[in-house]
Amino acid sequence: MRIVSGKFGGRPLKAVPGDATRPTTDKVKEAIFNMIGPYFDGGRSLDLYAGSGGLSIEGVSRGIDEAVLVDRQFAAIKTIKSNVEVTKEPERFQVIKKPAQSVIDQLKGTQPFDVFYFDPPYAKQTIEADLGKLVANDLVAKNAIVMAETDQHADLPDQIGAFTMVKQRDYGITVITIYEYEG
């Protein structure tokens, strides 16, 4: 695993030890950023199921100003912090060890996010509920982009509240779905 492109491009990233997380491959990561960017002019991102932190780090490498990375596993948090150090700009990352749903409440009242990465455990996918809670807590910026990485059984709808599906691609068992917020 590595940072694919941007300011930190080519730097290596570690995977979370064990099989509790499933890192996004470099090929799929490149495809994701070609769909949502590929580069950004600032903004904030939120990853509620960060794993190794690779998606958020890639986003900052490509121009996101600040990333908030959330995971509830100690091994994931330790890996994220190690991977953030590779950037030599740790001040651009906030790492939180808590369950995703409690962090959504914790972030209420902060500046809204422009980009969301949703790569939850396939069997515990709560993307629709999470998006509803983020909107209710005023954490979604106008025209925000949502990237959802699921398996083929997730069957996400074309519309989730004010989020409209704009792209969807299959990569083997992985499905990448992109939504834009029209709220």
Average pLDDT level: 93
Give the class from helix and strand content and strand pairing: alpha/beta
β-strand amount: 25-35%
Biggest beta-sheet profile: 8 strands, mixed
Determine Rg (CA atoms, Å).
15 Å
Q: CATH-wise, what's the superfamily?
A: Vaccinia Virus protein VP39
Describe how the helices and strands are arranged:
Elements: H1 26-36, E1 44-47, H2 54-61, E2 66-71, H3 74-87, E3 93-97, H4 100-106, E4 113-118, H5 127-136, E5 140-151, E6 159-160, E7 163-171, E8 174-181
Parallel strand pairs: 1-2, 1-4, 2-3, 4-5
Antiparallel strand pairs: 5-8, 6-7, 7-8
Account of the 3D structure:
It comes from Weissella minor. Keywords: Methyltransferase, Transferase. It holds the Pfam family Cons_hypoth95. Residues 1-22 are annotated as: Disordered. One of its GO terms (molecular function) is methyltransferase activity. With 183 residues, this protein is α/β, with parallel strands linked by helices. The chain has one domain (31-181): Vaccinia Virus protein VP39 (Rossmann fold, 3-Layer(aba) Sandwich), CATH 3.40.50. 27% of the residues lie in helices and 28% in strands. It is built from 5 helices and 8 strands. It has helices at residues 26-36, 54-61, 74-87, 100-106, 127-136, and strands at 44-47, 66-71, 93-97, 113-118, 140-151, 159-160, 163-171, 174-181. It has an 8-stranded mixed β-sheet with strand order 3-2-1-4-5-8-7-6. β1, α2 and β2 (66-71) form a beta-alpha-beta unit. The longest helix has 14 residues, at 74-87. The chain is globular, with a radius of gyration of 15 Å.
